[in-house]
Design a protein that fits this description.
The protein has 564 residues and is an alpha/beta fold. The protein is built from 25 helices and 16 strands. Helix 15 runs parallel beside helix 22 and helix 21 packs across helix 24. The longest helix has 21 residues. 51% of the residues are buried.
């Protein structure tokens, strides 16, 4: 019988030695059990390790020091990424200990921006299996394929078809770096047990010509399938995954708009799942806007917001912002939408410009004359905030920002496209063009900016602030489904964790070093909501916060004994 996360950690956190069946080199070559030089003398005798490792017995902190010394010899981010991946392949516990103790330094390596470049080169730097691949060749036997995964206890699956990786587009099977990276953040950020996570790449082909002609590409070398054929294999995956792991949480990741919204709407009421690009992005940006309102001492419902980009991220943000406006001022969602303008590749999204609108854009289509570019839209609308989720670098030009600043004392400029090379503008540009008045945030990190004798700390609207806590909360209470209300409460919780000192430095997000406290708070709030709404399947604990804390994984070595 599968254990809940709580039961699993109650078992794992006992002081009794863990019995292991492997011995000698077999044990040293198993990254889940390998402790390297940290095996005690007693363990070395019992497990056939004498002579196979140096005689000195090191603690994990010394191993971290050695790993960091080698890591810092590498100055290229891709080499650092490869080094950390190799560390994981040798010693999972040490890998997560290194990441947790150097979180701010290493998050940009294991996730955005470096993970984007790693995905582009995935077939060329591939070393060892991580996760599973489900391809069109597996149609009709997906359940059989999933049964090849050795763990009977999986709490969370992150799955992508590689069709829209960050702002880099279709990377096909190379997109596996994203599910792997997301689950690394779940473990470091919220304490999901790495042994109970599963990254999956759904390979339905690629339309990327460079990949199709790359002899080292590891995916299916034909064009992507769409429509009925695509949804049939997804349906088969969902049925197989939820049958084998009935309480598993499925995160849809980096699907194109024509798949992202249908997938979420297809399963959200019947399966424990969510889409981080839509819901997680919406929550983290709402939290940033609520922080900006504290800085400006204004109401969210009084803001006029332009979204540059009208895909899943923008609409997910807009939906969450409208919910925030309604919650704050008691206005209807329809009234809140009147404060929102979307701009896509054809200009301002309106009902008057002709042509069929995609379904997700319809609620935000304006009954007014369209304009063809961002500068004209800014001059016409006079926004107080512009939010970029376009994947188009340097589109928040000096003219755009200065035009906005003419009618807005403290313009909110969120350049959210990833990786850094796709950002709509840099932090330095936003501050310089507004003489330090801008409230800036980005999707990838930027360094602090010195201007006029002051240091401005740009915020990073990193989904890592939201999704790990959502996932932890849903898993540990046995939620039946993930609701928009959970993301809304997560956004409010995050916004309250920004200190006055942080706001005064210009940032609208808390220090990433506090991520475990943030995730604990969000997970507790998510559990509370699930219990209140009758969505939790596990018994409600007396001390909910302590219960969530007790469920969080910490990378520490256990004592081993030989199996009897």
């Amino acid at each position: 019988m599968a254990l809940s996360q709580k039961e699993h950690f109650q078992h794992a956190n006992t002081h009794e030695p863990l019995q292991v069946s492997g011995r000698g080199l077999e044990l040293l070559n198993n990254p889940w059990f390998n402790k390297g030089t940290s095996f005690t003398l007693e363990e070395r005798d019992a497990l056939g390790l004498r002579g196979l490792i140096p005689p000195f017995v090191a603690d994990i902190e010394e191993q971290v020091q050695r790993a960091m010394e080698n890591y810092r010899h590498k100055t290229d981010p891709m080499e650092q990424y490869i080094f950390l991946t190799a560390l994981h392949d040798r010693n999972v516990t040490l890998f997560y200990r290194v990441l947790m103790e150097h979180l701010t330094e290493m998050t940009p390596i294991m996730y955005t921006p470096t993970v984007g470049f790693a995905c582009q080169q995935f077939g060329h730097i591939y070393r060892k299996n991580r996760g599973m691949y489900i391809s069109l060749h597996d149609k009709g036997r997906v359940a059989e394929v999933l049964n090849n995964w050795p763990s009977e206890e999986v709490d969370i699956i992150v799955i992508s078809d590689g069709s829209r990786i960050l702002g880099l587009g279709d990377l096909g099977a190379n997109g596996m770096g994203i599910p792997i990276g997301k689950l690394v953040l779940y473990v470091t950020g919220a304490g999901l047990d790495p042994a109970r996570t599963l990254p999956i790449l759904l390979d339905v082909g690629t339309d990327n010509e460079d990949l199709l002609s790359d002899p080292l590409y590891l995916g299916i070398t034909h064009r992507r399938v769409h429509g009925v054929e695509f949804f049939e294999i997804v349906d088969e995956f969902v049925q197989a995954a939820t049958k084998r792991w009935p309480h598993v949480l499925i995160q849809w990741e980096d699907f194109t708009n024509d798949k992202a919204f249908p997938l979420l709407n297809r399963y959200r009421d019947d399966v424990l799942c969510f889409n981080d690009d839509i819901q997680g992005t919406g929550a983290v940006v709402l939290a940033g806007l609520l922080g900006a309102m504290r800085l400006k001492q204004e109401k969210l419902s009084d803001q006029r917001i332009i979204f540059y980009g009208a895909g899943s991220a923008s609409v997910g943000i807009a939906d969450m912002v409208c919910a925030g406006m309604a919650d704050e001022s008691g206005i209807s969602l329809e009234q809140a939408r009147q404060q929102i303008w979307l701009i896509d590749t054809r200009g301002l999204v309106t009902t008057t410009r002709g042509g069929k609108l995609e379904e997700h854009k319809i609620p935000y289509a304006r009954d007014e004359k369209s304009v063809e570019n961002l500068l004209k839209a800014v001059m016409k609308i006079k926004p107080t905030a512009i939010i970029g989720a376009s994947g188009q670098a340097q589109t928040f030009t000096r003219d755009v920002v200065e035009s906005m600043h003419q009618h807005c004392k403290q313009p909110i400029i969120f350049a959210l496209s990833n990786p850094t090379t796709k950002s709509e503008c840099t932090a330095e540009q936003a501050y310089q063009w507004t003489n330090g008045a801008a409230i800036f945030a980005s999707g990838s990190p930027f360094n602090p900016v010195r201007l006029n004798g002051r240091i401005y700390v740009p915020g990073q609207g990193n989904n890592m602030f939201i999704f790990p806590g959502i996932g932890l909360g849903a898993v540990v209470c046995g939620a039946k489904k993930v609701t928009d209300g959970m993301f809304f409460i997560a956004a409010k919780t995050l916004s309250h964790m920004v200190t006055e000192e942080e706001l005064n430095s210009g940032t609208v997000y808390p220090d990433l070093e506090k991520i475990r406290r943030i995730s604990l708070a969000i997970a507790t709030a998510v559990c509370r909501l699930a219990y209140d709404e009758g969505l939790a399947q596990y018994p409600e604990p007396e001390d909910l916060r302590q219960y969530v804390r007790d469920c969080m994984y910490h990378p520490e070595y256990r004592r081993y004994s030989a199996a009897e």
